[in-house]
TrEMBL record:
PROSITE patterns: WD_REPEATS_2. GO terms for biological process: endoplasmic reticulum unfolded protein response. Signal peptide: none annotated. It comes from the Eukaryota. WD repeats lie at residues 72-103. Keywords: WD repeat. It holds the Pfam family WD40. This is Uncharacterized protein. Gene3D superfamilies: YVTN repeat-like/Quinoprotein amine dehydrogenase. One of its GO terms (cellular component) is endoplasmic reticulum. PANTHER family: TRANSDUCIN BETA-LIKE PROTEIN 2. SUPFAM superfamilies: WD40 repeat-like.
Length: 239
């Protein structure tokens, strides 16, 4: 997929052949992405809503069409960026209105079911448009704004902490690794790797909530082990 800063989006196959040309109707495009599962494409811009489009194929694997699957709504101003979990069950958005949102998108959209907002958080806009990344388990949102990266707990919407002045100029891109243990930060001529310390904290909270409900003995043992491991990791950074 390619997308210009204006309204042109082009979908290609793996051989470089054009499958579809689309008009995003966004006036100015801030970002465009393909979902990790490969089913969806999105573009963001001046609109406060995000149209998630599905690239459809026949049972034989032949390209069929690109259709709107669903929309992410609720912001009051243009969307800067979006981020997916690997299975596209959750999508995060960040807007010019000073908020980010986490949506549950594991839905039956062909039957008319719509995404719903799980959490909304606030951030302080910088000079340049921010970039976001969502951890594989959707528990942590990383927000890169200018030269800083902030980590948010998506269950509470609260800021966990900020790593400041990672580069002397603006950060270009952020992404979690497949395990969610690390965050890759791209800028200038280097990629810097940060520990997802916030993820250890959210794992403790998640396991604690699960322990408050009825669980099998094996699950209780596994949850307690996870809590202990995360506490040990946090202790190394707190000392």
């Amino acid at each position: 997929m390619s997308c210009s800063a204006k309204t042109d989006m082009i979908i290609y196959d793996l051989k470089g052949q054009i499958l579809e040309r689309l008009d995003t109707y966004l006036m100015n495009t801030h970002s465009a992405k393909i979902s990790p599962c490969g089913r969806f494409v999105v573009a963001t811009g001046f609109s406060p809503d995000v149209k998630v489009m599905e690239v459809c194929f026949t049972r034989n694997g032949d390209f069929k069409q690109v259709v709107k699957a669903f929309e992410l709504t609720g912001h009051n101003s243009g969307i800067y960026d979006v981020a997916f979990t690997p299975d596209t069950s959750h999508i995060a958005t960040i807007s010019k209105d000073g908020t980010w949102k986490l949506f549950h998108t594991n839905i039956k959209y062909t039957l008319g079911e719509s995404p719903h907002v799980l959490e909304t958080g606030t951030y302080t806009p910088g000079v340049n448009p921010p970039r976001i990344a969502l951890s594989p388990n959707a528990e942590v949102l990383a927000l890169a704004c200018d030269t800083n990266v902030s980590f948010y707990d998506t269950y509470t919407g609260k800021l966990f902490g900020t790593v400041e002045n990672i580069y002397s100029s603006s950060i270009n891109y952020v992404s979690f690794d497949s395990s969610g243990q690390y965050l890759y930060v791209c800028g200038e001529r280097a990629v810097r790797i940060l520990h997802n310390v916030c993820g250890w904290s959210t794992s403790i909270d998640t396991c604690t909530r699960l322990l408050a409900t009825k669980q099998t003995s094996a699950t209780v043992e596994r949850l307690n082990k996870t809590i202990q491991e995360c506490k040990e990791k946090l202790a190394k950074f707190n000392n």
